[in-house]
Design goal:
This protein has 220 residues and is mainly α. 46% of the residues lie in helices and 0% in strands. It contains 10 helices and no strands. The chain has helices spanning 34-52, 91-94, 98-112, 118-125, 129-136, 139-145, 156-171, 181-187, 193-197, 201-213. Helix 7 packs across helix 10 (201-213). The longest helix has 19 residues, at 34-52.
Length: 220
């Protein structure tokens, strides 16, 4: 008989036994520390706040299909420039120049804030985009020349999509049952893609609540 110690084999896995469910794999520890999660939560809060600040109040009347315009923050609109400038010695003083357009951009930004698009500015200034391109170059160049960042903090399409979703929720706030994601997309006349892009219908509802809290007088 051999005096060597027998090899010790591991006990058979209970999951191999009939009738016993397999064991769940061990949960891996999260690579995010508690401080990391807090910083990420604060970052997302800042992003949401920046985006919601670009939206008009819930009860503000939409301006055609461009409801993301903050008409409530517009300064008084300037008079229209005559299409045919008068002739004579003072004719040059009536037409557009780069400095005149930049002054209007600065005037608009002083009341509206820096986050506005070219479409919103030309609507307020009563000019065309071609006039802006002719005297000031691209929109990014115009913003920089006026002392503004080259681009707004978020895209205009993102703001329009979010405003359409939140405004639809506001119109349906008296429903006994909340809109599903598909119903919200149909009512807002868009696909479910933007809803998923904002984190799903539950996150969109959370953004709506934050939006209303930013404008307490519009809650009723």
């Amino acid at each position: 008989m051999s005096t060597d110690r027998p090899t010790v084999f591991p006990s058979p896995d209970s999951s191999d036994s009939p009738g016993v469910p397999p064991r769940a794999p061990a949960r891996r520890p999260s690579p995010w520390s508690r401080d990391d999660r807090l910083r990420e939560r604060e970052r997302r809060t800042r992003v949401r706040s920046t985006l919601l600040e670009r939206l008009p109040p819930p009860d503000a009347p939409p301006l055609g299909d461009l409801g993301s315009f903050r008409v409530d923050l517009w300064p008084p609109r300037p008079p229209r420039m005559p299409r045919i400038p008068p002739r004579g010695p003072g004719a040059a003083a009536v037409g557009w120049t780069e400095e005149k357009l930049l002054d209007r951009v600065r005037t608009f930004a002083a009341s509206r804030g820096p986050d506005f698009t070219m479409q919103e500015f030309v609507r307020w200034a009563r000019i065309t985009s071609n006039t802006l391109y002719k005297y000031c170059g691209t929109w990014a160049e115009t913003r920089v020349a006026a002392g503004l960042p080259a681009e707004p903090t978020s895209s205009d399409l993102e703001v329009k999509s979010l405003h359409a979703l939140l405004y639809t929720l506001h119109l349906n706030r008296r429903r006994s049952r909340p809109l599903t994601g598909e119903q919200l997309a149909r009512a807002a006349r868009m696909s479910v893609g933007p809803i998923r892009g904002f984190g799903g219908v539950k996150q969109v509802r959370n953004l709506y609540r934050l939006w209303v809290e930013m404008h307490p007088k519009n809650e009723e």
